[in-house]
Amino acid sequence: MARGFVGQLQAVVLQGWEGSRPMRRHKAMIGMLGLGLVIGVGVGFLLGYYVWPVRYIDVAPMDLHPDWRAEYVQMVALAYTRDQDLTLARARLALLGDPIEVLQRFPDRSTVSISPAARSAIAELLRALRAPSASEPSGGPP
């Protein structure tokens, strides 16, 4: 009698699993799935780490590694000594927080070696930021 395609497929599947060693086949199937999983994870790791690694572009200074933040602070201070643009230096340091606090805590938290030129530039920029500006109100009534 004609059982149809589904009936034949069911008979083949049941015949394969109803043999004398069903547990052995079950363990082999689980082992192959586990091996496939391990190989897939390994290949994915190698592709993601070596072939197509993540590249960060246009990262905010606050998101940088602390060593690179220290380099950023040094570059801002050195740029200030070159062009004397306090507004631009303040805006650049504001990306890391309060500019005066950033410069005050910088030498203590930095693991990067600071050149003498950068150290003096940071001190000069800190003095300029602390000095009262002509554009800021002096605090008294006019």
Largest β sheet strand count, sense and barrel closure: none
| Content of β-strand | under 5%
Q: What number of structural domains do the residues give?
A: 2
SS field, number of helical segments: 6
List the uncertain runs.
137-142
The coarse overall form would be rod-shaped
Relevant terms:
single chain; 142 residues; mainly alpha; 2 domains; 68% helix; 0% strand; rod-shaped
Tell me what you see in this structure.
The protein has about 140 residues and is mostly helical. It folds into two domains: about 25-55; about 60-130, no CATH class. Helices cover about 70% and strands about 0% of the residues. The protein is built from six helices and no strands. It has helices at about 5-15, 20-50, 65-85, 85-95, 100-110, 115-130. Helix 3 (about 65-85) runs antiparallel to helix 4 (about 85-95), helix 3 crosses helix 6 (about 115-130) and helix 5 packs antiparallel against helix 6. The longest helix is centred in the first third of the chain and has 30 residues, at about 20-50. It is rod-shaped, with a radius of gyration of 33 Å. The model is unreliable at about 135-140 (pLDDT under 50).
